[in-house]
Amino acid sequence: MDITTEIITIASRKGGTGKTTTAFNLAFSLTEQGREVLLVDMDSQANLTSTIEIIEEVNYTIYDVITENVAIEQAIYETNIKDIDIIPASLDLANLEIEISDLEDRELLLSEVINDYNSNYDYIIIDTAPALDLTTINALSASNSVIATVRPSMYSFQGLEQLIDLVNLIKANINPDLDLEGILVTQVDRRTRVAKEFINDLSNLYQDKVFDISISQNIAVVEATIEGIPVYLYDSNSIAAKQYLELASEKNDRDILSI
Ligand SMILES: Nc1ncnc2c1ncn2[C@@H]1O[C@H](COP(=O)(O)OP(=O)(O)OP(=O)(O)O)[C@@H](O)[C@H]1O
């Protein structure tokens, strides 16, 4: 793997926390900074795959790459968004757990493929399922960094803690390069007390791991997703469009600080 490629997994134990939305919109924001991005859909729900328009015929998915030895290059497709390519998901990913019973091979599948891949991308962003299952373990084992997404709810802390425990376990045993890059709060309704208290509590617990920027609950996101485009291309003046651009800037600032 080219060491200039950063591999980011977007993860959360809970469903509907904005993983797919963040993978897509962060990818777009990074292309706005002149970067090239490969999205990898590791979620068997395949929401990212069905949201973004793939402009070539799809013959292979990430499932074929990790289980059938299909070359990764054969599963990379251009999308209608400039400088974003994708490796699509397949519903078969849901069977991964059953099909690979050999424990020793479990975490190695995607990381082996990615390690051997001579990437020209600046970023590979992996969208994962709302579970700490084999697909997520694969993604984390192959990544440099994790962005955890959460929604403001008192039930979010437990899932976040479980994800962080898994990240630490994988860092200690499988992939020393892995770091929790940041926690991103999404779908924030700023009128509510619960949102303010949640962000406060989260910041007290995880301090600078929490991104300064959080993403507001914004109808433009929903409408953009229906159109299959990043929120910035749907409405560049929307609050979420600006916040996702800001997320990429904050990520850059953090990367510079950690060098
Ligand atoms: N900032 C936002 N404002 C309004 N709606 C949003 C926002 N972010 C995400 N959504 C909507 O919330 C729903 C869940 O978002 P998304 O699919 O990104 O979450 P997810 O974590 O990937 O879900 P899953 O856990 O099922 O994979 C989608 O309908 C999406 O359009």
Automatic annotation (TrEMBL):
Q: Where is the AAA domain?
A: 6-179
Give the reaction(s) catalysed.
Answer: ATP + H2O = ADP + phosphate + H(+)
Q: Which residues form a coiled coil?
A: none
Concerning Pfam families, the annotation shows: AAA_31 (PF13614)
Q: Which SUPFAM superfamilies match?
A: P-loop containing nucleoside triphosphate hydrolases
The UniProt family comment states:
Belongs to the ParA family.
**Quaternary structure note:** Dimerizes in the presence of ATP but not ADP; ATP-binding is required for double-stranded (ds)DNA-binding. Interacts with DnaA.
Record protein name field: Sporulation initiation inhibitor protein Soj
Q: Which organism is it from?
A: Orenia metallireducens
- Organism lineage string: Bacteria, Bacillati, Bacillota, Clostridia, Halanaerobiales
